[in-house]
Write a structure and sequence with these properties.
180 residues; 50s Ribosomal Protein L17, Chain: A; 2 domains; three-stranded antiparallel sheet
């Protein structure tokens, strides 16, 4: 019976699974974002988040433990130098999984797993976006008033442009008459 055994084996033997997760974790730490299947991303999240937590304590022991999982000097250096400084105040949840849809070949669910603190686009839109609430008390009236005001401004601009167009040919003909 497999009571309380929640680990996803991903259809691989343990050595293959460990090597694959190590390579995926290395790619994630170096590139900050990778595209993979949902099942692999969830397994990778369980694999890489404890390593990022270990990197907060920069000691020789923690570097050796992380290296035993990753087997890449570049990834360990990147993790302890750059990533650990960015996630120092974060208590957990270092990765984000964004679903992308299904793959054409085998219809597998695809996703993008990324480090949370390295997506500048989401960080900037999160701060600038302001939510507005709809209400029945005068909200529609204000919206209608602003829409009509915008429409009248647009119409006024069109009239001004049309008048300017009409005046420019007159000016051109006057110049031609002066020359003659």
């Amino acid at each position: 019976m497999r009571h309380n055994k929640k680990f996803n084996h991903l259809g691989r033997k343990s050595a293959h699974r460990k090597a694959m997760l190590s390579n995926m974790a290395t790619s994630l730490l170096i590139h900050k974002r990778i595209k993979t299947t949902v099942a692999k991303a969830k397994a990778l999240r369980l694999y890489v988040e404890p390593l990022i937590t270990k990197s907060k304590n920069d000691s020789t022991h923690s570097r050796r433990i992380v290296f035993s999982y990753l087997r890449s000097k570049e990834a360990v250096t990147e993790l302890f130098r750059d990533i650990s400084a960015k996630v120092a105040d974060r208590p957990g949840g270092y990765t984000r999984i964004i679903k992308l849809g299904n793959r054409l070949g085998d219809n597998a669910e695809m996703c993008m797993i990324e480090l949370v603190d390295y997506n500048e686009h989401m960080l900037s839109t999160k701060d600038t976006k302001k939510k507005s609430r709809r209400s029945r008390r005068g909200g529609a009236k204000k919206a209608a008033e602003t829409a009509t005001a915008k429409n009248t401004n647009v119409e006024a601009e069109k009239v001004v442009k049309e008048e300017a167009k009409k005046e420019t040919p007159k000016a051109d003909t006057e110049k031609k008459e002066d020359k003659a």
